[in-house]
Amino acid sequence: MGKTVLITGGNRGIGQQLARVLASDGWDVLIGARDPARGKATATRLRKETGGRLKAVELDVTSDASVATCVQKLRDGAIKLDALVNNAGVFGTARGADGVARTIETNLFGALRVTLGVLPLLCDGATVTNVTSGLGELSNLDAEHRRRLADPALTRDALVAMMHDFVRGGGKGWGTDAYGVSKAALNALTRILAAELAPRQIKVNATCPGWVRTDMGGRNAPRSVEEGADSVRFGVTATATGGIFRDGRRIAP
Ligand code: NAP
């Protein structure tokens, strides 16, 4: 039996390309998609294209109920996961408080919600890959928040509280926008989860695809979706933990 990976936001963009590559490599691929019809269409197309094993599973990373239903379905199917890729993300959502909340809810809390939800299904030694961005580099933040996110003593609860404060404050005062903050916080979460899950040898890393030609990245981005997915894929079989990587090389947090 092949190894199984769950990719959130797997119905288009980098997530879809990663699904294509991993299925071609013999992985059993679960395409997480908030719209079940789009997820199904992608799985059907990639099955034809690759001859691989792909299935769609409905998963809205911003919804506790959706994550719980997805986990229950996997449990019912006696599915264990060898890898999780927290790829679902939004960029440049509607401005204002709603946009800030949605960005943090999807890019940061979504990754946390899904990771904690599937934890009982993750095999010991599995990998968790959080898809990050260069825009989340700490150097983009003001000095105070840079210091707080980089603090090795930062706990998960303290990080979550800090991000709720950020949303309550309308996304102001961190020196960068909600997208940058969401990815900087995702990098901090990666470090924290890596330590928490080390006793089970679960490796947690963040991988950056670079600036990629997708719906999100736009037509003028310098990198192809193949290059972006390849950079993300490094995390799926990583032996290190707690790192941030682009193209398999460590980058600044
Ligand atoms: P994309 O083409 O816009 O695709 C985003 C994916 O995320 C879609 O499948 C979308 O589903 C899904 N998604 C959004 N909100 C969701 C939710 N609440 N629940 C489940 N799925 C949700 O973006 P991309 O370029 O492939 O980006 C993938 C990841 O790479 C993101 O985390 C992004 O931040 C990161 N990244 C991208 C770039 C770049 O240049 N493209 C650079 C750095 C990092 P729907 O189809 O239902 O909307």
Task: Tell me about this structure.
The protein is α/β, with parallel strands linked by helices. The chain has a domain of 173 residues: 3-Layer(aba) Sandwich (Rossmann fold), CATH 3.40.50.720. Strand 6, helix 8 and strand 7 form a beta-alpha-beta unit. Helix 1 runs parallel beside helix 2.
**Overall pLDDT metric:** 97
Radius of gyration computed on alpha carbons:
17 Å
* Uncertain spans: none
Separation of the first and last Cα atoms: 36 Å
Query: Biggest sheet: strands side by side, in what order?
Result: 3-2-1-4-5-6-7-8
How much helical structure, as a percent, in the residues?
40-55%
Count of DSSP strands: 8
Question: What proportion of the residues form beta strands (DSSP E)?
Answer: 15-25%
Instruction: Supply the number of helical segments.
Output: 8
Name a few traits of the molecule.
253 residues, alpha/beta, Rossmann fold, 8-stranded mixed sheet, 8 helices, 8 strands, 44% helix, binds NADP nicotinamide-adenine-dinucleotide phosphate
SSE order and pairing:
Blueprint: E1 4-7, H1 13-24, E2 28-33, H2 36-50, E3 53-58, H3 64-76, E4 81-86, H4 97-118, E5 122-131, H5 143-150, H6 156-168, H7 178-197, E6 203-208, H8 225-233, E7 244-246, E8 249-250
Parallel strand pairs: 1-2, 1-4, 2-3, 4-5, 5-6, 6-7
Antiparallel strand pairs: 7-8
Helix pairs in contact: 1-2, 1-8, 3-4, 4-6, 4-7
Summed up:
The chain has 8 helices and 8 strands, in the order βαβαβαβαβαααβαββ.
